[in-house]
What does this fold into?
Amino acid sequence: MMSTTHAAMGAVVAAALVPVAPDLAGVAALGAIAGGVFPDLDLAFEHRKTLHYPEHYWVVAVPMLVVATIRPGVWTVALAAFFGSAALHSVTDVFGGGLGLRPWKADDDRGVYSHWNGRWVAPRRWVRYDGAPEDVALVAGLSVVPVLVFDGTVQTVIVVGLAVSVVYGILRRRLPDLYERLV
It folds into this structure.
């Protein structure tokens, strides 16, 4: 799945704070968006292994959620949302495709690395590959709630993310050929 899909997913979860703590919901959304994108920074290293921790982010996220519940504040809520969204990202990547250059060929069985078990978990391919039509549809659907309940920076980030997703989805199948020509 695209980073923007994970970011929108985190923002949807953060939207649950709007009726309970509207003054902290925006901070939670920004933390969740950052946490949703963070694991994919490992594209520069070993993707879905270096910064993807499907089991371990929860070890930080759950206590942070408790702390944010007991002592709600900008930093506690933002960090709880960040780690919760990073955990959600790491777990949900298994529902995407493999890591091959052309993941629509389903020729790679690396979904996400389980550090706890020391092995790759096979992709489920519910979303065949990042930028697939179902991925673009998913980010579009997930973007509805944050766009409706937030304004300002959160809304702008979600709308820009959706636009980037659509463009990426259109270009996705052409990118491996471009990459091979350049590299």
Q: What stands out?
A: Residues 3-182 form one domain.
